[in-house]
């Protein structure tokens, strides 16, 4: 592996081979999402517990301190909105010059396998890999499903994740599924991180699916709403880190969450 790629990945993935990424890129298609209306306030206090921050260039410039030591994963795809005709009609929105200028540790791009714009988003990924590999910048592919939530099952996620890896993604962000998730991770030759999806009803529900996903081969998570929409986001991140980096069980994580929350 090229030294630059390896160095950047080592900043995002800890020595234990695990990671917790914090995504705050939702506004690029959802606008001012609940609890993310003021990104600078949302991430304040959370950055020390994140192994990477997934963010757009606009929010990076306006809301993230320049002395931030948390590695940046730059969201570089977009072009559609939640009220548009089709979320999958994306393009690359950020040049390689801009990626380098913003000192990104990695970049992230969505692919929509099975959609009308499948070929477009897959060639976006391939083109981005071509551009970024030459500068030692790893690409994270996000296996997005748009509004078609029923696609979050192992066969689809496994197909999408493998295609992303085949096209050169160094990390794949995909959804957890309760049945056969190990087939998704085993069929993907690059590290897999779990996407959060809709906010869960309880913290324990989050801890349980994260724990199960880690046991079945994921190296970590990329959870947004299930962290910063929590009434206690810092305890939530710290409890997730206990599962990811200390092999805590869901019940142990719940106990830590309750202990930390009671002190706020």
Report on this structure.
With 264 residues, the protein is of the alpha/beta class. The protein has a single domain, classed as Alpha-Beta Barrel (TIM Barrel). The protein contains 12 helices and 10 strands. The strands form 2 sheets. It has an 8-stranded parallel barrel with strand order 1-2-3-6-7-8-9-10, surrounded by 6 helices. A two-stranded antiparallel ribbon has the order 4-5. Helix 9 packs parallel to helix 11 and helix 11 packs antiparallel against helix 12. The radius of gyration is 17 Å and the shape is globular. It starts with a helix and ends with a helix. The mean pLDDT is 95.
The ordered string of helix (H) and strand (E) elements is HEHHEHEEEHEHEHEHEHEHHH
CATH superfamily: Aldolase class I
Query: Any idea what the radius of gyration is?
Result: 17 Å
**Main β sheet profile:** 8 strands, parallel, barrel
Low-confidence stretches: none
CATH-defined fold name: TIM Barrel
Shape: globular
Count of DSSP H/I helices = 12
Largest sheet, spatial ordering of strands: 1-2-3-6-7-8-9-10
């Amino acid at each position: 592996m090229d030294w630059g790629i390896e160095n950047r990945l080592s900043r995002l993935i800890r020595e234990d081979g695990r990671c917790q990424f914090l995504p705050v890129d939702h506004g690029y298609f959802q606008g001012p999402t609940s609890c993310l209306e003021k990104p600078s306030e949302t991430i304040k206090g959370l950055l020390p517990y994140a192994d990477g921050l997934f963010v757009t260039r606009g929010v990076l410039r306006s809301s993230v301190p320049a002395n931030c030591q948390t590695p940046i994963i730059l969201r570089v795809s977009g072009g559609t909105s939640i009220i548009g005709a089709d979320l999958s009609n994306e393009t690359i929105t950020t040049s390689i010059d801009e990626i380098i200028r913003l000192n990104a540790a990695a970049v992230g791009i969505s692919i929509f396998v099975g959609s009308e714009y499948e070929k477009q988003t897959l060639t976006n990924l391939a083109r981005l890999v071509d551009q970024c590999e030459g500068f030692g910048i790893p690409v994270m592919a996000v296996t997005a499903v748009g509004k078609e939530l029923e696609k979050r099952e192992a066969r689809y996620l496994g197909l999408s994740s493998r295609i992303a890896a085949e096209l050169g993604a160094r990390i794949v962000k995909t959804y957890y599924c309760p049945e056969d998730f190990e087939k998704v991770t085993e069929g993907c030759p690059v590290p897999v991180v779990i996407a959060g999806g809709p906010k869960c009803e309880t913290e324990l529900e989050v801890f349980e699916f994260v724990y199960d996903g880690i046991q079945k081969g994921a190296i970590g998570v990329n959870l947004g709403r299930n962290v910063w929409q929590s009434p206690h986001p810092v305890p939530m991140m710290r409890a997730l880190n206990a599962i990811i980096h200390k092999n805590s069980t869901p019940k142990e994580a719940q106990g830590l969450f309750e202990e930390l929350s009671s002190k706020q």
